[in-house]
Write a structure and sequence with these properties.
Elements: E1 2-8, H1 16-27, E2 31-37, H2 43-52, E3 57-60, E4 74-75, H3 77-82, E5 87-90, E6 95-98, H4 101-112, E7 120-124, H5 128-139, E8 144-148, H6 153-161, E9 169-171, E10 181-186, E11 204-212, H7 220-228, E12 233-235, H8 238-253, H9 259-267
Parallel strand pairs: 1-2, 1-3, 4-6, 7-8, 7-10, 8-9, 10-11, 11-12
Antiparallel strand pairs: 3-5, 5-6
Helix pairs in contact: 1-8, 4-5, 4-8, 8-9
Bound molecules: NADP nicotinamide-adenine-dinucleotide phosphate.
Length: 269
């Protein structure tokens, strides 16, 4: 049976084994999928060992998404642009790195009917996850794309890095006062500490949508803020998680699973 796994530290909480088991069932694929705890110091040895054990593909989660890049035989263009790898595909002698996070995000927006083209889009945060979604966001041609962050240097660096793909306006959160956006995406990790970042007044235009990359408890502070902005629709990042997993599954197996059913299953707990 073909073997797959997610590697991370910690990894016990990962939803990937349940998700991929369900994809396999749906598509009639015979495969196994494990969660493998890999500490950062042993990442090179672990990748080699998993290759020797015959694994055909790996998902990569925190804290290895950047470090794994130096250990790949080759890296896809989109993973290079994202500056991180979340999917490994077995090659004869090693691993090819790819990144399905941006694809997962944009597919989830599409599934939800949250438009990007021609809309004013604000992204809050400028960390690894945000870097991973900027290319597909720019390619969807928003009217404007603003990235705001607590540390002002990070959005400026992103605007510079993505200049050839499309324009990004770098801002700080407090400088957003008086702006209006049609889609606001929370890409900060503040919700994991039970916090919502400090923002000035009304930022969401009438009929606007709010999307959080976080899900579970970490989504609750942003959801409360989005409600206070009278958002037309509010979504968490569980759909993105499932869509990025489905994109990895398709790279490995050449078949696309039904994500809606798996999102529902994971939401039910
Ligand atoms: N749904 C999915 O599939 C998926 C995939 C990847 C990530 N995520 C989620 O995306 C979020 C971001 O992850 P990441 O990997 O990008 O993290 P990261 O690289 O550590 O970046 C964290 C970002 O949050 C900001 N931030 C954190 N605490 C803050 C606070 N109290 N006030 C203001 N800003 C704050 C940071 O601002 P500074 O730069 O100023 O520190 C930075 O922009 C996490 O919640 C993660 O769970 C979801």
């Amino acid at each position: 049976m073909d073997r797959y796994a997610v590697i991370g530290h910690p990894v016990a909480h990962s939803k990937s084994p349940r998700m991929h088991a369900q994809f396999a069932r749906q598509t009639g694929q015979a495969l196994s999928y494990d969660a493998v705890e890999v500490e950062p110091e042993v990442l090179p040895a672990a990748l080699q060992a998993l290759h020797e054990q015959g694994y055909r593909g790996l998902n990569v989660t925190l804290p290895h998404k950047v470090a794994v890049m130096a250990l790949c035989e080759s890296i896809s263009a989109r993973a290079q642009i994202a500056g991180a790898v979340n999917t490994l595909i077995r090659t004869e002698h090693g691993w090819r790195g790819d990144n399905t996070d941006g694809e997962g995000f944009i597919r989830d927006l599409h599934r939800l009917g949250f438009g990007v083209t021609g809309r004013r889009v604000l992204v809050l945060g400028a960390g690894g996850a945000v870097r991973g979604i900027l290319e597909p966001l720019l390619r969807a041609r928003p009217a404007t794309l603003v990235v705001s962050n607590r540390n002002p240097w990070k959005p400026e660096a992103l605007a510079e890095q993505f200049r050839d793909i499309g324009p990004i306006t770098p801002r700080t959160h407090l400088s957003l006062k008086g702006d209006r956006y049609d889609l606001i995406v929370n890409g900060t990790s503040a919700g994991h500490g039970g916090e919502m970042i400090a923002l000035p007044g009304q930022l969401l235009a009438e009929g606007g949508d709010c999307y959080d990359l976080s899900y579970g408890k970490a989504f609750l502070p942003f959801r409360a803020w989005a409600e206070s902005q009278s958002a037309a629709r509010i979504a968490d990042g569980l759909g993105m998680l499932v869509e990025q997993g489905a994109a990895a599954f398709e790279l490995w197996r050449g078949v696309r699973p039904d994500t809606a059913a798996v999102i529902e299953m994971l939401r039910a707990g």
